[in-house]
């Protein structure tokens, strides 16, 4: 998980800054899935006085994050979100917030994970998640030109195994007992993200149609569910 050892950036609109600024309150009890090295965990503990439990499969990253956590389930056994042993370990816990920041796309069955995670919310709690938009115009331009290449990070991160567009996210949420109470987005223009292509690589008429699509340059969706 060393690809995700970044500094926390609260000066621009990104998935973590949106969750922090718009979705969370101080002095909360939080369950954070996939914290990597703990950039968000550290901020929640030190700046927002939150108690944070973490679940992280990468032992090295998880140990770094655990210094800011109340409780840490790390490593391939209890830190593997897909195997659900974390749920047994956390039995009886209830949280004000549960966070999946750029995590669901790495899971084999994100829908089932959400259904399980919601059981750990307090009655007035909220589940927050961010997820990349596979239907970004940059991806469509690649496919139009018969190209598809995974990248180190970003929309086509080589570790992504689940992919979503706006409607499929809605379908996933509808299979839980939660509903979306707030949604925001991170935007990235064609040519400005890690997929380096441009509208002039496709016919003009196709480019104009793509530009007029809903959510065409949404890079990540960010949702708050209750």
Task: Walk me through this protein's architecture.
- The relative contact order is 0.15.
- The chain has helices at residues 15-23, 39-46, 59-66, 85-89, 110-117, 137-144, 166-174, 204-211, and strands at 29-33, 51-56, 71-74, 95-101, 121-132, 180-187, 218-225.
- 28% of the residues lie in helices and 22% in strands.
- A seven-stranded mixed beta sheet has the order 3-2-1-4-5-7-6, covered by helices on one side.
- It starts with 14 loop residues before the first helix and ends with a strand.
- It is globular and about 55 Å long.
- By secondary structure, it is an alpha/beta fold.
- It is built from eight helices and seven strands.
SSE diagram, text form:
Blueprint: H1 15-23, E1 29-33, H2 39-46, E2 51-56, H3 59-66, E3 71-74, H4 85-89, E4 95-101, H5 110-117, E5 121-132, H6 137-144, H7 166-174, E6 180-187, H8 204-211, E7 218-225
Parallel strand pairs: 1-2, 1-4, 2-3, 4-5
Antiparallel strand pairs: 5-7, 6-7
Helix-strand pattern, N to C?
HEHEHEHEHEHHEHE
Number of helices: 8
Q: What topology, given as strand order, has the largest sheet?
A: 3-2-1-4-5-7-6
Multimeric state = single chain
- The computed structural class is alpha/beta
Radius of gyration: 18 Å
The first-to-last residue Cα distance is 29 Å
- The counted number of beta strands is 7
> For the residues shown, what is the average pLDDT?
97
Q: How would you sum up the major sheet?
A: 7 strands, mixed
Characterize the overall form.
Answer: globular
Estimated helix fraction: 25-40%
Question: Could you tell me the strand content as a percent range?
Answer: 15-25%
- What low-confidence regions span 5 or more consecutive residues with pLDDT below 50? none
């Amino acid at each position: 998980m060393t690809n995700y050892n970044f500094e926390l950036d609260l000066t621009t609109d990104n998935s973590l800054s949106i969750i922090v600024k718009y979705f969370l309150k101080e002095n909360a009890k939080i369950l954070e899935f996939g914290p990597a090295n703990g950039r968000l965990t550290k901020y929640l503990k030190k700046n927002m006085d939150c108690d944070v439990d973490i679940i992280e499969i990468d032992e090295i990253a998880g140990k770094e994050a655990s210094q800011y956590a109340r409780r840490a389930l790390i490593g391939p056994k209890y830190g593997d979100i897909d195997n659900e042993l974390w749920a047994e370990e956390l039995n009886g816990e209830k949280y004000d917030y549960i966070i999946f920041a750029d995590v669901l796309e790495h899971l084999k069955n994100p829908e089932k994970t959400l259904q399980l995670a919601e059981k750990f919310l307090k009655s007035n709690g909220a589940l927050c998640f961010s997820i990349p938009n596979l239907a970004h115009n940059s991806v469509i331009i690649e496919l139009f030109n018969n190209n598809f290449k995974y990248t180190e990070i970003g929309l086509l991160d080589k570790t992504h195994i689940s992919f979503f567009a706006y409607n499929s996210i809605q379908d996933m949420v509808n299979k839980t007992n939660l509903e979306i109470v707030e949604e925001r987005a991170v935007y990235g223009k064609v040519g400005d993200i890690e997929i380096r292509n441009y509208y002039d690589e496709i016919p003009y008429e196709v480019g104009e149609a793509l530009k007029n699509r809903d959510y065409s340059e949404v890079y990540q969706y960010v949702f708050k569910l209750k």
